[in-house]
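An instance as discussed:

___
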Amino acid sequence: MSFNSITGRFALLTIVFVLLAEIFILVPSVTNFRRDYLETRLERAQIASLALLATDESIAADLESELLENAGVYNVVLRRDDIRQLVLSSPLPEPISATYDLRDRNFSASARDTLHRLLNPRPQTIRVIGEPVRDAGQLIEITMNTAPMRNAMVEFAVRLLAVSAAFSVLTALLLNLAAQRLIVGPIRRVIGHMTAYAASPDDSRTIITPSASMGEVRAAESALAAMQHTVTASLKQRERLAQLGQAVAKISHDLRNILTTGQILADRLEESADPAVRRTAPKLVGSISRAVTLCETTLAFGKAEEPQPSLTLFHLRPLVAEVVEAEELAAEPAPGAEVDFVTDIPAGLRIRADRDQLYRVLANLARNARQAIEATRKPGTIEIAAGEDESAWWLRVGDSGPGLPQKARDNLFQPFTGGIRKGGTGLGLAIAADLIRGHGGGLELIRSDETGSEFRITLPRVIALV
């Protein structure tokens, strides 16, 4: 039995607590034993004195010594009829060091005398006073050596501790058996189900069925079963999404090739002699271009192989100007619903990042903001600001649009579920978050309400060493 196990520690604590309890009762037990010992000596001395009185107080010296030795005392004094009479006597080896009156029932004083005697191994001569049995006199007193009494007290204490130790071990073993059956067994069952489930999470037979009679263990089994059901469902969903992603990637690959051909043909429509065709051609080219971009984005996300960022130190203001220029050219606002871009980038601000990847992130945020404002058919503003502190660079992209719906906020950076606009896939923000995480930074939504939305990009100044 190992003390690193539940049962081992349970048994150890049981032994310790039982021994502590026995220590608390040891002093009272030894105190009572000492009192009984002294009362026994008084009774033996009284019996010896009666033998002398039965012979008209005439007894041989050797017989007197034998009576005293059998009683374990030096002298016996008996008071009868208010007369104190030395009945049996022998020479004292040393002066009397203490007197104890057993007629005094003060337990605390007796306990104190008991501890004193146990801690004092030197033999001493003491006087003990008590009441004779069977009304054989008014009192009886004896003188005796403390050595035999102390030896008997020590022997009794050792026996008591030995019995306590045996009782503790037996109790610990019984409790250990009970703990094995009532506690450890159910816990091992839970562990076995966890191990089996970890080895084969798609096998429903490994899901535990709560059956423990103990409330706490049954609650643990119920929690484990709920978690296993959730994980199994999640794994099945992820497997279906993976299969769907592979199918979408294949479709996107073929569709991209078809759209690329259509894009080439659409470019030639701009040279048509029909004015209506020439006016329609740019919009058709733009639509096909966006479809091609969507296919390429889906393929890139499906591969899950975004390249590691190539970090360089560059000025941020020109990059932001490129993003703003591209979005202004792509803007298609309704009359009276223009989108204004406002930038607040310090002229000398330089940051360390992958320029192309950061462009993709800013372009995605700006495009989402522009499309959200255009959907309201009202004028709006997009603000791009940046700054730095001692530990990081930060960029802020805010807009005065309608804000994000609750569903979009709940699944903001989840692919295929966090789409902001109708018909969107949500890949843009998912890819943007992955790109910023690749820089060791973070992309988060600071606010989104009826006054607009605001995203914040944080890029660390210190390059982490792996």
In short: Residues 78 and 85 are 5 Å apart (CA to CA).
